[in-house]
């Protein structure tokens, strides 16, 4: 069993080998740029870790891991275009640094490069990986559409929101774990349980992201705290507060989320106060713990040794308690 540092080092070296700038440079420069911005690289690390846990040389999973990383970054390029976002990880977004057409085309090329990486595997494994990848990619698109739809809907339920983050975020972590198990030729039961572990961790991860966006330390979080409040995003916190509030506070919350003041500082203070007083903040933390507990329960079903089970449990607990 290797450590996360080993996985990260091997992934970076493989990325540098595969993702190179060639002609036409205006197509490949943006691809190299977005993957060079770093990030947590949680998805590919999960793939390598999963493969390693099932007693297979983790480097065998590098093509599948990089395919997920390329797909994730492809989705970020297009998300940034849809959101008209100027920054990604503190740097200019691809469509701002170049232009809109370059962002669309480079994103498309990344998706194709991701599929090409599965060609490193023999036919049966290629087929299994590609089927999972296609299913997951489509679910991510469906999740993104739900997210877009929710912007104009006033009747979004908590159940619908959880489904949206499952599709937009969690299924990719589930696929990451399952791909590692596929490369390791684990049993069908272990493949499915690996997926379920990743999916539940993914939901907890996104709920934690929503919570930190509101209540995180700006220095640790790495981006503006209160961004979801500023953009009137209907997160788990908002929907839970709306469900818990009395009529007066509910009307006030709805009104605040219909406004976009030039200076949002007072709005952020007031919304956070409503989240705390309504119990939404507490419930959010409880739900993060709940999905993490579900994931940890699944670990016991995996046919991996006790040491690896403990490492996986420690990994999920670290994600739940992260500050960034």
Characterise this structure:
- The chain is mainly α and 324 residues long.
- It has 16 helices and 2 strands.
- The protein has helices at residues 4-18, 25-36, 42-53, 62-83, 94-97, 100-117, 123-150, 158-183, 188-215, 218-221, 227-230, 236-244, 247-256, 265-277, 280-299, 306-320, and strands spanning 87-88, 91-92.
- A two-stranded antiparallel sheet has the order 1-2.
- A hairpin with a 2-residue loop joins strand 1 (87-88) and strand 2.
- The longest helix has 28 residues, at 123-150.
- The protein is globular and about 60 Å long.
Calculate Rg over CA atoms. 20 Å
Order of helices and strands: HHHHEEHHHHHHHHHHHH
Number of helical stretches of at least 4 residues: 16
Q: If strands are numbered along the chain, what order do they take across the biggest sheet?
A: 1-2
Uncertain ranges: none
Question: How is the biggest beta sheet arranged?
Answer: 2 strands, antiparallel
User: How far from one another are the termini?
Assistant: 26 Å
Average pLDDT: 93
**Apparent shape:** globular
What's the β-strand tally? 2
Beta fraction of the residues?
under 5%
Q: Report the helical percentage.
A: over 70%
Structural class: mainly alpha
Topology readout:
Blueprint: H1 4-18, H2 25-36, H3 42-53, H4 62-83, E1 87-88, E2 91-92, H5 94-97, H6 100-117, H7 123-150, H8 158-183, H9 188-215, H10 218-221, H11 227-230, H12 236-244, H13 247-256, H14 265-277, H15 280-299, H16 306-320
Antiparallel strand pairs: 1-2
Helix pairs in contact: 1-3, 1-4, 2-6, 3-4, 3-8, 4-6, 4-7, 4-8, 7-8, 8-9, 9-15, 12-13, 12-15, 15-16
């Amino acid at each position: 069993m290797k450590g996360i540092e080993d996985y990260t080092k091997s992934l970076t070296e493989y990325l540098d080998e595969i993702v190179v700038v060639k002609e036409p440079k205006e197509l490949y420069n943006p691809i190299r740029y977005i993957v060079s911005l770093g990030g947590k690289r949680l998805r590919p690390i999960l793939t390598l870790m999963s493969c390693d846990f099932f007693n297979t040389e983790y480097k065998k999973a590098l093509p599948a891991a990089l395919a997920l990383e390329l797909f994730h970054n492809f989705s970020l390029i297009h998300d940034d275009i849809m959101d008209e976002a100027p920054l990604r990880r503190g740097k200019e977004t691809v469509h701002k640094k170049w232009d809109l057409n370059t962002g669309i085309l480079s994103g498309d090329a990344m998706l194709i490069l991701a599929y090409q990486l599965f060609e490193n595997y023999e036919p049966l494994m290629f087929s299994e990986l590609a089927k999972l990848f296609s299913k997951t990619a489509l679910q991510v698109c469906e999740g993104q559409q739900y997210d877009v739809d929710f912007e104009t809907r006033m009747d979004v339920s908590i159940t619908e929101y959880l489904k949206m983050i499952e599709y937009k975020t969690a299924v990719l972590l589930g696929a990451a774990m399952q791909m590692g198990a596929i490369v390791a030729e684990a049993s069908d039961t272990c493949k499915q349980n690996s997926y379920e572990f990743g999916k539940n961790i993914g939901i907890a991860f996104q709920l934690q992201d929503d919570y930190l966006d509101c209540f995180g330390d700006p220095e640790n979080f790495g981006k503006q705290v209160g961004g979801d409040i500023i953009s009137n995003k209907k997160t788990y916190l908002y929907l839970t507060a709306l469900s818990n509030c009395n009529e007066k506070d509910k009307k006030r919350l709805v009104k605040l989320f219909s406004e976009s003041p030039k200076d949002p500082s007072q709005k952020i203070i007031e919304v956070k106060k409503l989240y705390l007083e309504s119990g939404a903040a507490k419930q959010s933390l409880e739900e993060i713990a709940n999905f993490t507990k579900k994931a940890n329960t699944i670990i016991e079903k995996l046919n991996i040794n006790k040491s690896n089970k403990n490492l996986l449990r420690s990994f999920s607990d670290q994600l739940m308690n992260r500050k960034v």
